[in-house]
Every structure is written in structure tokens, then in C-alpha cells.
Amino acid sequence: MGIIPYTTQGINLDVLCDNVNFSTLWYQWGVDADIMLFTNNYPCADIHELLSPNILHQLIKGTFKDHLVIWVEKYLERIHGKTCAKVLRKWFKVMDDIDRRIAAAPSFAGLCRFPQGRGFTQWTGNNSKALMKVYLPAIEGHVPDDIVWCFSAFLEFFYLNTLEEIKEALDCFHCYRKIFQETGVFFDRFLLPRQHSLMLYIMLICMFSAPNESKHIKAIKEPWRQSSKFNALGQMLLTNQHLDKLAAARTDFMAHGMLVFALGSAPLGEAQID
To answer: Where are the extended beta strands (E) located within the chain?
Structure first.
């Protein structure tokens, strides 16, 4: 899928819609010509800058849990099959061995133990992140080396620090994930938004610094906890509006010299709301 340069996104999008047929727009650029973004005519707004990196949903629960783990299971099912009792027993034996390896992870600082293997009913973000640390050795020997290297490159992308290392790990991930196409597990040319977002991480890191979940926590999780949990959306939006107004008032008061904080006192915008 093509990438529209973010600096001239509005202009390029108009040019594409005027000169390219709708089918090519969708399959080559991922653009639905029937939908006009509300930011299209805003010269200072760009949709690429509004979609900041989301480690939890794009990397941990997206690419790892919903894609790679599921693809490994589909690969094993495709190789061993479920067509007869004998082959089915072999497939269950492989999956049980993977669960046994996951459950056998030793107690160690930073590692989470899964006594039942990967078969927990609800995948939380913490579960998925913890499973990432023990899943690679659990599948080794049951899948081709390219799948192992694909997981290894993805984990390096997740944990590396420098932009050069991140780019190299991402290139390796794109190279080795082709094994899922070659083995017939996945056919859709990897037109997956959550994996496509990995290509934008280096650009967004340069623009907005290191990605984190702080904005998600402040805008979603904390307002949710402060709501009554019943029809919570309106309450969450109201909480965010109040916090924005408090932050704006604090900035205005400080600009006029109306707020002078004593040493060790908390600013107004950092006060906790019960």
C-alpha cells in the first residue's frame, strides 16, 4: 500500500482523486474516494500527525497477538492438518508441547509464568507483552527458521533504542514474514493497518519523540476510572473538556503572573481528580 507524503497530504489526495480511478486509489493507496476527511481543508491539520504510535494496540495486541501468533497456529494446522484422527493427534501433540515450553519458563525478574500455557481466555495487554518474552523459544523446532527469525526481528524492533537499529530490524521483519505467504498461511499482500503503522514509527519518533501510552492513559483510562461506568463516553468527554480548560486557564494565569508556585508545591494542572 502506498504512503501519501504527510507534508502535502491534502494537495496530493486531491490530485489522486481527480486523476486516478477509484479502484486503483483503494488498492494502491488505501484511499476511499467516497469519503472526505474532515481535516482535508484544514491547512494546519494532517491525519498522519493525528495518528500517533500506539505500542499496545499496534505492536503488542495487534502485530504480535492478532497476527503472528495466529499465523503460527494456522501454519501448524496447515502442515499437520485436521483431516484424520492420526494427524489430529500429531497437531495436538505439537500445540501441547508449545504450551509445555511456555509453562516451563523459570521464575525470573521480568518474566511472567503461564502454568496453563498460552490458553488463557482473555488476552490483556500485560499478558500479551509477557508472552512475547517466552514465545520465541516455545515455537523453535516446530516451525521453519524463517518464522523464528521473523519473531526475532519483531522483538528487536520492539526493544531496540536507536533509529538505525529499528529500521534494520523492521527490514528484517518484512523480509522474513514472507514465509507466511510462501506457505499459504496469508495471501493478502500484508495490507494490514497495524503492521503498516510500523513503517511510520521512525518518522513519528523524529516528530514526536519516543512513543508511549501516556496520552492514552490520560485521555481514556483515567477518565474511564473516574466515570460511573454507565454510558461512560459522555462523562469521559466532559472530563477531558474540564481538564483542557483547567490547563488553558493555568497557562493564561501563569502568563499574567497570577500563579507563583512555592518550592515543592504541585501546579494546578497536575492536581489529582478524585
So the answer is: none
Rounded Cα distance between 26 and 259, Å, is: 53
Share of the chain above pLDDT 70, in %: 76
Which of 66, 63, 91 has the alpha carbon at shortest distance from 177?
A: 63
Closest CA to 123 of 71, 66, 195: 66
Rg (CA), the chain: 24
* pLDDT per residue as tens digits for the range 195-221: 888 888 888 788 777 676 667 778 888
- Among 158, 2, 4, which Cα is nearest to 68's? 158
Question: What sign has the CA pseudo-torsion 202, 206, 208, 211?
Answer: positive
> Within 13 Å, how many C-alpha atoms sit on residue 155's CB side?
16
Contact between 194 and 154 under an 8 Å Cβ cutoff? The reply is no
Closest CA to 154 of 77, 95, 67: 67
218 and 110 Cβ atoms separated by less than 8 Å: no
Angle of helix 85-103 versus helix 70-80 axis, rounded to 10: 150
The mean-pLDDT minimum among 60-69, 93-102, 254-263 falls in 254-263
